[in-house]
Design goal:
The complex is a heterodimer.
Chain A lengths: L36 H6 L2 E3 L6 E3 L1 H4 L6 H5 L5 E3 L5 E3 L9 H5 L6 E3 L7 E3 L4
Antiparallel strand pairs in A: 1-6, 2-5, 3-4
Chain B lengths: L25 E6 L3 H12 L4 E4 L15 E2 L18 E11 L4 E7 L10 E3 L2 H14 L3 E3 L4 E6 L5 E6 L5 E9 L6 H5 L11 E10 L2 H8 L5 E8 L7 E7 L3 E9 H7 L3 H10 L4 H4 L3 E11 L10 E2 L2 E3 L8 E3 L2 E3 L1 H21 L4 H13 L1 H8 L3 H5 L2 H19 L10 H11 L4 H14 L2
Helix pairs in contact in B: 1-2, 1-8, 8-9, 9-10, 12-13
Classes of the chains: A alpha+beta, B alpha+beta.
């Protein structure tokens, strides 16, 4: 048992700073919501850890007929590859869990939380 | 302490070997510093227990998203006059329900000034602020908050009883007399304990949300608000046939808009979630509210919507489950509540855990008091009463046919057809029903069903 657990609390619960407002949506012409996906994701604060907290076994994905993760993931982290696999990225993950919930391939997707303090940081969730 | 992380093998990893009979480091470990965890830590600390609360984010609320209104009445019992200090954005005085088709909108709009002053009814807030505030109440009562720490697994003794948690800190094992899993909708602790299924898409929805910047005066003018008054709109329809709905609510100088989408429907529709938000933002009844707004933050989170019939068992030897981890979000159509259920369950869990620790008995039998008490309170009483609601709310006709039926009926009622005389209301109803593929018999049957669910 380490004494760590009983040290004085660190000041980690401080109020978060406001994020910079992202690019506008073009209130004039064009449809509202026409924000580019990269700009949308740029509004979110991610503390990217070194360890990938999502792992995809593309061999399992090759036999998948639905590929539900590709469209359902709100962060658009999954992309089909030409050889039938799935390319993924973990850096801009909301940690919502949609991908593993809709995945129909046993063992295709291993999803854990990022290490403590890493990952998404919502300011106005 | 050297901050070396022990890699998290993940929820599918083999559980560790049973641990020996070392004494507990604390009475109660609370995993998660959201509303359920903070309430549990507060109640346990006030009941005299030593408490450590673990939070995987850098601060409480950093991983959390909600969809509209926090109802704080449950706080009256533990934090008198909480409204004087809570980090509120706006107090909800207007509650609207919109039924949408692509080109139509029927809005039922209720407003009361009695919600504009103490003790208030509902509020909007940012979860980073609200959750941090509630967690501070727990630490002020004596609980110890450890942030940036993932509880990676349960410690069990030879008899299988939960006696603590593993964390991703280098010296990461922590023992307790009772562990409260308030680790959210994906609760890997509840999954590891076998109480929660590994994946359950049928009973979860995905919430996606944009926070949009608008000057405070513009929000006041567009939504008819003054001072700290706020508006919450719930929407049904216009989600491309995906069961779920939309929401819009006002903060001080932002407006939050989003959609809640049933996972099986979302997966089958092959539509990207943000497209549904774009549809709602572009709707002729909503777009004028948001003109000139800029996206400040985009967010997504799962919501457990199975209700009473799909909640996991709430306790095991040495373990209690609270809040979203226990599937306690109430998604019952006109009532959409979650934070209050998390707080309500957490308060009871914390007290029961502290009493069990003091009595030296954290057996499953003793901890059953948790469920017994929740059944007597709103937490499980409301869920039990409304147990049929999630299924009917997400049903095919409610989601895909009735919005069009209702909108067509109202449109035909108010469309003047001179020189043709006005048709009778029943004829209009028949016409609207037929046009939307609903028979009057189905309509009657659903009416009776809904009446039974909400009686």
């Amino acid at each position: 048992m380490s004494r760590f657990w009983f040290r004085k609390p660190v000041g980690a619960a401080s109020a978060p700073a406001a994020t910079e407002a992202a690019e506008g949506m073009g209130g004039g012409g064009g449809r509202l919501g026409d924000i580019a996906f990269e700009d949308r994701m740029a509004t979110v604060d991610f503390r990217v850890g070194e360890r990938a907290h999502i792992v995809v076994d593309s061999d399992v994905c090759r036999s998948c007929t639905t590929r539900a993760c590709v469209t359902a993931c709100p962060a658009n982290l999954f992309a089909p590859t030409a050889d039938g696999g799935i390319l993924f990225n973990y850096e801009q993950c909301f940690e919502c869990g949609t991908c593993y919930m809709v995945c129909n391939g046993e063992g295709a997707l291993t999803w854990t939380y990022p290490d403590g303090g890493q990952g998404v940081v919502f300011r106005q969730g | 302490m050297a901050d070396e992380r022990v890699p998290y093998a993940g929820p599918g990893a083999a559980p560790g070997a049973a641990v020996g009979d070392q004494p507990a480091d604390v009475d109660v470990i609370v995993v998660g510093a959201g509303p359920a965890g903070a309430a549990a830590a507060l109640a346990a600390a006030r009941a005299g227990a030593s408490v450590v609360m673990l939070e995987r984010g850098p601060f409480p609320g950093s991983k959390n998203v909600y969809g509209g209104v926090i109802y704080g009445r449950i706080l009256d019992t533990v934090l008198p006059n909480w409204w004087e200090e809570v980090p509120v954005e706006r107090w909800v005085v207007r509650r609207s329900t919109m039924v949408l088709t692509e080109t139509q909108a029927l809005t039922v709009d209720f407003r009361t000034q009695s919600w504009a002053g103490p003790p208030y009814n509902g509020m909007t807030a940012y979860r980073a602020d609200f959750d941090s505030w509630l967690a501070e109440k727990a630490t002020a009562a004596g609980a110890r908050l450890v942030t940036s720490t993932v509880a990676t697994g349960l410690l069990r003794d030879a008899a299988g009883r939960v006696v603590g948690v593993r964390t991703d800190r280098a010296d990461g094992e922590l023992r307790a007399r009772v562990v409260i899993a308030a680790d959210g909708v994906n609760s890997f602790l509840a999954k590891e304990s076998g109480l929660l299924p590994k994946a359950d898409p049928k009973h979860h929805t995905l919430g996606v949300k944009e926070v949009l910047s608008l000057p405070r005066e513009v929000i006041d003018e567009r939504f008819g608000l003054r001072g700290q008054e706020g508006l919450d709109i719930e929407m049904l329809g216009n989600t491309r046939g995906i069961p779920g709905g939309g929401f819009l609510y006002t903060n001080s100088d932002t407006v939050s808009i989003g959609a809640v989408l049933a996972l099986p429907g979302l997966a089958a529709a092959k539509v990207r979630p943000e497209e549904i938000i774009a549809d709602l933002k572009g709707h002729p009844a909503i777009a004028p509210y948001l003109r000139g707004a800029t996206v400040k933050e985009y967010a997504a989170h799962l919501i457990p919507e199975g209700g009473y019939d799909h909640m996991p068992p709430l306790h095991a030897d040495g373990l209690l489950i609270a809040g979203d981890a226990a599937g306690m979000t109430l998604a019952a159509g006109i009532w959409l509540e979650g934070v209050n259920f998390a707080i309500g369950s957490g308060l009871v869990a914390g007290r029961v855990a502290a009493e069990a620790a003091a009595a030296g008995d954290a057996s499953k039998k003793r901890l059953a008091r948790y469920r017994d008490e929740l059944e007597k309170q709103f937490v499980l009483a409301d869920h039990k009463r409304l147990r049929g609601a999630p299924e009917i709310i997400l049903s095919e006709r409610i989601q895909r046919r009735y919005p069009g039926l209702v909108a067509d009926l109202v449109e035909s009622l108010f469309t003047v057809t001179n020189p043709e005389p006005k048709p009778g209301a029943l004829a209009l109803l028949r016409r609207a029903a037929k046009r939307n593929g609903v028979s009057l018999r189905e309509l009657a049957r659903d009416g009776v069903r809904i009446g039974k669910v909400f009686r």
